[in-house]
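Hi U.,

Before I forget, here's the chain from the pilot set. I'm dumping it here mostly so it's searchable later in email.
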Amino acid sequence: MDFLEEPIPGVGTYDDFNTIDWVREKSRDRDRHREITNKSKESTWALIHSVSDAFSGWLLMLLIGLLSGSLAGLIDISAHWMTDLKEGICTSGIWFNHEHCCWNSNHVTFENRDKCPEWNSWSQLIISTNEGAFAYIVNYFMYVLWALLFAFLAVSLVKVFAPYACGSGIPEIKTILSGFIIRGYLGKWTLMIKTITLVLAVSSGLSLGKEGPLVHVACCCGNILCHCFNKYRKNEAKRREVLSAAAAAGVSVAFGAPIGGVLFSLEEVSYYFPLKTLWRSFFAALVAAFTLRSINPFGNSRLVLFYVEFHTPWHLFELVPFIMLGIFGGLWGALFIRTNIAWCRKRKTTQLGKYPVVEVLVVTAITAILAFPNEYTRVSTSELISELFNDCGLLDSSKLCDYKNRFNTSKAGELPDRPAGEGVYSAMWQLALTLILKIVITIFTFGMKIPSGLFIPSMAVGAIAGRLLGVGMEQLAYYHHDWAIFNSWCSQGADCITPGLYAMVGAAACLGGVTRMTVSLVVIMFELTGGLEYIVPLMAAAMTSKWVADALGREGIYDAHIRLNGYPFLEAKEEFAHKTLAMDVMKPRRNDPLLTVLTQDSMTVEDVETIISETTYSGFPVVVSRESQRLVGFVLRRDLIISIENARKKQDGVVSTSIIYFTEHSPPVPPYTPPTLKLRNILDLSPFTVTDLTPMEIVVDIFRKLGLRQCLVTHNGRLLGIITKKDVLKHIAQMANQDPDSILFN
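Structure:
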């Protein structure tokens, strides 16, 4: 009896912390598609089923876009309101944030548009005054108290309900998209807790952003919605195509940059990205951006808080300071990665990792205490970037725009370069202190047990450095316009230098230095700012920062965290340049015990169960006999266990002495002997094999491009050994003088 004629639930699925077999998954999907296509010619109902199957991918993208956009809008509105809650409350409606509260007021002037009687600070509510030292202390105390409360709630919820909701999530998503299974990482609990705690973490004032975690949130939406469609629920490779598109939707709503999101998914997170996925990613990103625009979370018809428009053209000479910003971004990126990884390693290997709540509260307290006295650290990082990107106009009341003779306009109505006033000098000092605080505190914040993105803090560091340099260049051009470098293009009283543009270029340089993005980064930046004419400065800064950072360390922050966690991620960008052979890497090595194999027709159920219980391997090669070692196929451990358990329940007479056959035809069973068990249906008859003399660079290439779990090594048709993905990664680590035991999973 062949009980495997009906598919068994569980066969073909994978254990937690294991890698999927891309080749098998793609093959199964092709078989499924072929069957549907053939049946569609038989009846109208089958044709409708075929059309709905083809359309289901687009429907899924629509749902992912709608859900991601809605959640992003909810997160933006909630975070804005809770950030302002630290400073005060709106008496006309507790649900209004500071800006919306004063919009509705009839007692507000344009110059003091952030001051209105409806908005009360905590000192006004508690001691009825906003003046004096005691009022300042009350506001200070309430600011720190709210920050600690938000941070405590965030870390407690993560610790109790969803430990996977911490961090940015991008390193793990990169690993999952490469074929690794982390059960629960993209589940409903993780989605719910990450959405709530992301709002709390951003509102606490810590040096973190919501952009990276929004990619995780969108991928959770994609994974949960996949369960509504058979095609994606039952096939891990197809599901990863959906997750690639969901990642694009996540960046689309994080930055209001749909095209940048698609390129980010392609350049940074995706492992397998066919053309079909490109179109679907584009559609998902479009729907997500449209949904967020409909919600209009910032009330300005823009998708991001720091949308700006510059009008002054840049000059060729300015490429020099732009490239200097690129060098700064590369240096900061390399410094940040090294120090942050060292701190995260310390957290993993010492007692510090056992007290996540204490760590978060200490870092929050330090951040809040140091942030409150400085107006540029007190506001949310997004608002800070918005102010730094801003080009000073006639009506700006910011200290950054406090120039002397500020109301003199040129003929065209533009503001000319002019001498800096006291406000600008005061702002420069405060920004310099903000830069130091952001650089130091971000190192300790990223990687804590709360949702924490890195895009916004990195952009803030670069934007501050860029604005400082921009104001310096502006003053240099004003006071020394007769210098050779200025006199050909910058006449006195002209509007030559745009400090906000320098801030934008600096932000791109620092983000590029940390993440090593190039194409997607430039597209995201010009989608953010609407400045197509500034593509060249952005490209120059992004490329310079990547070159400088790569010269000091090859890994971006996400790859460094993947390696720190020991995930089996085979980097497609790295070249394998060593002259080793498959026989140098395969198991078993010389003097090791022989390779554990199953024979095709001579082992009993008890023999196989003994091998399963005594080993931890993910699968076993099947050979003709132990003497010949001629390869028949490969069988997965999980499939074996499920099939034997199922046979014991459903097939009469299967006992420990029953013979297991992996052959097509089993011989007739003599009377009074237990029935045989045929398991040919779970046998992979075309496992990938290489010879023992195959160069390892070819083996590594095969693993990368086909997404293999394992590869068998033969010599003249005889089985010699096996190479798993873990073996390949350990070998690469060994060749790079790194610790091979850091690779924890297969």
